[in-house]
């Protein structure tokens, strides 16, 4: 097996799924001949043609709405929102429409669609090319939210998302598109939605992360291991529905939890993990539940110095790990 | 400063057969009797909410009967009572929804009344945030086009809803892809209380069609024949690859916006009085009798039957069970 990048995992999933199922089409801004601004769909226009790889008008609400309508009429659309920061005009269509359709029709009208979007900072994208939107959307019943942290999961999770009969928001850590490499086996396989994974075993603390933060946590865990700190690392992989069992089992083993995410701290995804642990595993708790997060400012500032200040990184994570282990 | 009344077009002469006219009158009558009953039930305190289609019946039956019913797709809005009846919903179906009872085909009592959904008739689910259905209908039409199907997507909205960005975005797609889509604007000149001239600075919604490269047509939506001819042309064109029509039907909203609205706070008494002359049902009835399509006795029989159906449907719905509490809990996801 050869090493591939995370975005190659995305592209392989799209390609193989489109070859498998003629009802799948892709739409979004610049997804056609250009192959997407990040090149996730490169080569697909040439292979599948303009009726299956459709450059959309520059109008995000319609990108999602077109997908909803097509999904209700027998297709399996994969919609690309160019940056997560631009998804907000489509909030109404995602939250009020796609996510509620199945419930509001008493199950008569499923909406099998995927909304792919690159999210997160660290690429010099400033306020509007760096946002993390997972807490906003993981809050919404009826919408699945998945975040891969490596090439293998990117391919397997995206295949599951495309085959799922519900709307799935698929958040791609853009900083990791080419930074994160790993092996991708040839041929078809899936990674199930709703299943977290213990990616590193350790006895001292449990660290929960997803996306690029999981990648950084692996580096930080290697670092603190030199000091004898044993980190158990849980890659959440799907934020809704959450694999509560895996989350709880690891915590019961270590009794100490650190949740790492680059989204704003306040009401972020870590708050739900913390509440879950307090509710269901209070008697196992050996230390305060800690969060290492982005700060509560509007978004990632552009200047390199300010971006570094904003972003959690392996050094900051290692420090938080040591502190928690020492508690 | 009202927007000047536009000259109305009659673009084609496609005319419904006598049988179809009788069916149209039957649907209109059934819708009107149901609508009146819902207002009554609300005033009796038996239901929490009603939103009415009175004054829109002629336009709605004309559009519905121009479709291939059960084959073409409808993404309606909350005033489309006549339209969903034309596509197969029964008085029982409607009143189960109004009373929030088990068996309501729209949502099983989850949605407010008049938020229709009826898969057997290809009626797709009504939302409360307006205009979301229009780009979704464009998506349905796109799906049809991508796989070479021959179904036309029809979607309806009020003129106020054309101010939403989703209207603009949908029509961009419709024009670019020549979608098999008919966008029906039921223009009753009020968005709750806000008059048309505070909504737009053009005298016809259909004038906007040129900006998107789609056909724009305005018809007298109180006139069944005129609206049917225009809708038939739009649907046939869409089916044959001719692209989208923005069809504006000028109608009257004979009632307040909803059971919670009081239109005397924004409509002058003389304007309200004038509404009586804009009711499309009596002139259609008179015309059918004058043209020998129906006798007075036959018209009366249709009306009596509609009333009896509504009575029966009310008894049925009022005695139907409420949904069990666990129905509130889901399923949320399709498994």
Task: Tell me what you see in this structure.
- The complex is a heterodimer of chains A (327) and B (335).
- Chain A folds into two domains: 3-183, 3-Layer(aba) Sandwich (Rossmann fold); 197-326, Rossmann fold, CATH 3.40.50.
- Chain A is built from eleven helices and 14 strands.
- Chain A has helices at 6-20, 44-48, 60-72, 91-104, 134-138, 151-163, 212-225, 244-254, 269-280, 304-310, 314-326, and strands at residues 3-5, 24-28, 53-55, 76-80, 114-119, 144-146, 168-173, 181-183, 197-200, 205-209, 231-235, 238-240, 257-264, 290-294.
- Chain A has a seven-stranded mixed sheet, sandwiched between helices. In chain A, strands 9-11-10-13-14 form a five-stranded mixed sheet, with helices on both faces.
- Chain B is built from eleven helices and seven strands.
- Chain B has one domain (18-321): Thiamin diphosphate (ThDP)-binding fold, Pyr/PP domains (Rossmann fold, 3-Layer(aba) Sandwich).
- In chain B, helix 1 (18-43) packs parallel to helix 4 (91-98), helix 2 runs parallel beside helix 7 and helix 4 (91-98) packs across helix 10 (296-319).
- Chain B is an alpha/beta fold and 335 residues long.
- At the A-B interface, helix 3 and helix 4 of A face helix 5 and helix 6 of B.
Question: How is the secondary structure organized here?
Answer:
The complex is a heterodimer of chains A (327) and B (335).
Chain A (H helix, E strand, L loop, with lengths): L2 E3 H15 L3 E5 L15 H5 L4 E3 L4 H13 L3 E5 L10 H14 L9 E6 L14 H5 L5 E3 L4 H13 L4 E6 L7 E3 L13 E4 L4 E5 L2 H14 L5 E5 L2 E3 L3 H11 L2 E8 L4 H12 L9 E5 L9 H7 L3 H13 L1
Helix pairs in contact in A: 1-6, 3-4, 7-11, 8-9
Chain B lengths: L17 H26 L13 H10 L6 E3 L5 H6 L4 H8 L34 H14 L6 E6 L6 H12 L4 E7 L2 E2 L2 E2 L19 E6 L3 H16 L5 E6 L18 H6 L6 H10 L5 H24 L5 H4 L7
Parallel strand pairs in B: 1-2, 2-3, 3-7, 6-7
Antiparallel strand pairs in B: 4-5
Helix pairs in contact in B: 1-2, 1-4, 1-9, 1-10, 2-7, 4-10, 5-6
């Amino acid at each position: 097996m050869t090493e591939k990048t995370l975005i190659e995992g995305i592209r392989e999933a799209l390609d193989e799924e489109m070859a498998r199922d003629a009802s799948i089409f892709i739409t979004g801004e610049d997804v056609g001949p250009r192959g997407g601004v990040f090149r996730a769909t490169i080569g697909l226009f040439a292979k599948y043609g303009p009726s299956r790889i459709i450059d959309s008008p520059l109008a995000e609400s319609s990108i999602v709405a077109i997908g909803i309508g097509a999904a209700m009429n027998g297709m399996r659309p994969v919609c690309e929102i160019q940056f997560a920061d631009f998804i907000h005009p489509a909030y109404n269509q995602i939250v009020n429409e796609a996510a509620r359709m199945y419930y509001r029709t008493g199950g008569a009208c499923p909406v099998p669609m995927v909304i792919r979007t690159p999210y997160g900072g660290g690429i010099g994208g400033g306020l509007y090319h760096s946002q993390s939107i997972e807490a906003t959307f993981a809050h919404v019943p009826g919408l699945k939210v998945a975040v891969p942290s490596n090439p293998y999961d990117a391919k397997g999770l995206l295949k599951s998302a495309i085959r799922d009969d519900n709307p799935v928001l698929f958040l791609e850590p853009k900083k990791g598109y080419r930074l994160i490499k790993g092996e991708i086996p040839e041929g078809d396989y899936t990674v199930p939605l709703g299943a977290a994974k213990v990616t590193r075993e350790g006895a001292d603390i449990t660290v929960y992360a997803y996306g690029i933060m999981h990648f950084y946590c692996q580096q930080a865990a290697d670092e603190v291991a030199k000091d004898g700190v044993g980190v158990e690392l849980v890659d959440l992989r799907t934020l809704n529905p959450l694999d509560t069992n895996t989350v709880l089992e690891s915590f019961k083993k270590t009794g100490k939890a650190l949740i790492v995410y680059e989204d704003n701290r306040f009401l972020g995804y870590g708050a739900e993990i913390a509440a879950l642990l307090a509710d269901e595993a209070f008697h196992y708790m050996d230390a305060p539940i800690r969060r290492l997060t982005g700060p509560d400012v509007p978004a990632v500032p552009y200047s390199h110095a300010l971006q570094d200040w904003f972003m959690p990184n392996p050094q900051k994570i290692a420090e938080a790990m040591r502190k928690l282990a020492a508690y | 400063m009202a927007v000047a009344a536009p000259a109305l077009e009659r673009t084609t002469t496609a005319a419904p057969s006598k049988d179809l006219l009788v069916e149209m009158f039957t649907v209109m009558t059934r819708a009107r009797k149901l609508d009146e009953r819902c207002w009554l039930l609300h005033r009796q305190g038996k239901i929490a909410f009603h939103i009415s289609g009175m004054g829109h019946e002629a336009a709605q039956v004309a559009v519905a009967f121009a479709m291939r019913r059960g084959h073409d797709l409808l993404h309606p809005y909350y005033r489309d009572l006549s339209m969903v009846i034309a596509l197969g919903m029964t008085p029982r179906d409607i009143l189960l929804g109004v009373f929030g009872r088990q068996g309501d085909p729209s949502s099983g009592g989850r949605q407010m009344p008049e938020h229709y959904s009826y898969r057997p008739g290809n009626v797709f689910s009504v939302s409360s945030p307006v205009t979301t259905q229009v780009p979704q209908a464009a998506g349905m039409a796109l799906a049809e086009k991508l796989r070479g199907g021959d179904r036309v997507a029809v979607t309806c909205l009020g003129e106020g809803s054309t101010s939403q960005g989703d209207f603009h975005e949908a029509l961009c797609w419709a024009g670019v892809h020549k979608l098999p889509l008919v966008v029906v604007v039921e223009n009753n000149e009020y968005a709750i209380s806000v008059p048309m001239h505070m909504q737009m600075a053009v005298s016809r919604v259909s004038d906007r069609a040129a900006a998107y490269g789609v056909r724009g047509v305005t018809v007298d939506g109180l006139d069944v024949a005129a609206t049917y001819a225009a809708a038939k042309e739009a649907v046939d064109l869409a089916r044959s690859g001719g692209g989208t029509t923005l069809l504006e039907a000028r109608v009257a909203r004979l009632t307040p916006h909803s059971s919670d609205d009081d239109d005397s706070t924004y409509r002058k008494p003389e304007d309200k009085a004038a509404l009586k002359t804009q009711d499309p049902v009596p002139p259609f009835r008179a015309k059918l009798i004058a043209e020998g399509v129906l006798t007075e006795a036959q018209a009366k029989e249709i009306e009596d039957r509609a009333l009896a159906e509504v009575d029966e449907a009310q008894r049925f719905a009022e005695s139907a069970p409420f949904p069990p509490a666990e129905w509130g809990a889901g399923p949320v996801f399709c498994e």
